[in-house]
Amino acid sequence: MKSSETLQEYRQPILAAIALLVLFVLLGISSPYFLEFNNIFNIGKQASINLMIALGMTVVIISGGIDLSVGSIMALTISIMAVLNVVFGLNIVFAAVAGMLAALASGAINGVVIQFGRVPAFIATLGMMGVARGFVLLISRGNPSMSFPDAFLWIADGSVLGIPFPIFLSTVMVILTGAFLKYTRLGREIYAIGGNAEAARLSGINIQKVRILTYTISGLCCGLAGIVFAARVGAAPPSAGVGYELNAIAAAIIGGTSLSGGRGSVIGTVVGALLMAVISNGLNIIRVDPYWQGIVIGMVIVLAVMLSNMKSEQS
């Protein structure tokens, strides 16, 4: 009985993993280049940035919220780093720390506005998306392509134990996030609030603290993703992060995280992020019009939500 319940619980991530395996086989047959080590590493690098953001998004959605500001917060991190380093000559390490602090503050503000301002998460984070993007455009005006020093680019091109650093960092974040949600009191409280906020409050959980922390965690993930993105691009384009909120939500939902909260897993989000990266990479390799990528991803999101709703009705 227990094994059948486990299978039911992880049905959607398992289906996503099967779809990922099938895609690998089909794309491997369609193009011999797809299965080359360089391309596999490229897929990992491509997935890593979205995965970092999606981990924070997973935490927020499990708590019963949503964060539409992640792409703009990531762009804000990059712009602050660029201005402090390139324009004011601040050491890149201190500039990166300042960008991270801005991302953390943005996430915390989201949580405070939602909790104490009684603003729905959708509206509050939509507002933060506009505010953060406005600051990005204000900061970058006149400096649309500020370049980072060569040493900083190691974050994108370097490796640890033979593993590209973006993949290594995202793997560490996956392990830490998974352990946080499963083995810490705060992680269990996040699940409890997403499942039934009123019951969680009556059981003594400090909903205000937990909700603010979930959005702060999302901001932290955006900041780290911003640093990796900046190193990979080597510059600070004002358009950085546009559409990344959709990608992050898609990775979480494809992996089985419920939009109604209270259910989700880090492993599922990993599978979702990899599936999206493989779809994007595969479409590029077989020379499909890139505009089709948005159509395909949108269809996958709708299908994933349909499967999630069918699962909820059967439970």
Considering the chains and any ligands shown, give keywords for the structure.
about 325 residues, mainly alpha, two-stranded antiparallel sheet, globular
Structure description:
This protein starts with a helix and ends with a helix. It is built from 14 helices and two strands. The mean pLDDT is 88. The longest helix has 27 residues, at 207-233. Helix 3 (37-62) packs across helix 9 (185-195) and helix 4 (70-87) packs parallel to helix 6. 76% of the residues lie in helices and 1% in strands. A two-stranded antiparallel sheet has the order 1-2. It has 315 residues and is mainly alpha-helical.
Topology:
Layout: H1 2-9, H2 11-30, H3 37-62, H4 70-87, H5 92-116, H6 121-140, H7 154-157, E1 159-160, E2 163-164, H8 165-183, H9 185-195, H10 197-202, H11 207-233, H12 244-254, H13 266-285, H14 291-314
Antiparallel strand pairs: 1-2
Helix pairs in contact: 2-13, 3-8, 3-9, 3-11, 3-12, 3-13, 4-5, 4-6, 4-11, 5-6, 5-11, 8-9, 9-11, 12-13, 12-14, 13-14
Strand content: under 5%
Largest sheet: 2 strands, antiparallel
The number of helices is 14
**Alpha-carbon distance between the two ends:** 14 Å
User: What radius of gyration results from the CA coordinates?
Assistant: 19 Å
Low-confidence stretches: none
Number of strands: 2
As an assembly, this protein is single chain
Sheet with the most strands: spatial strand order: 1-2
Mean pLDDT: 88
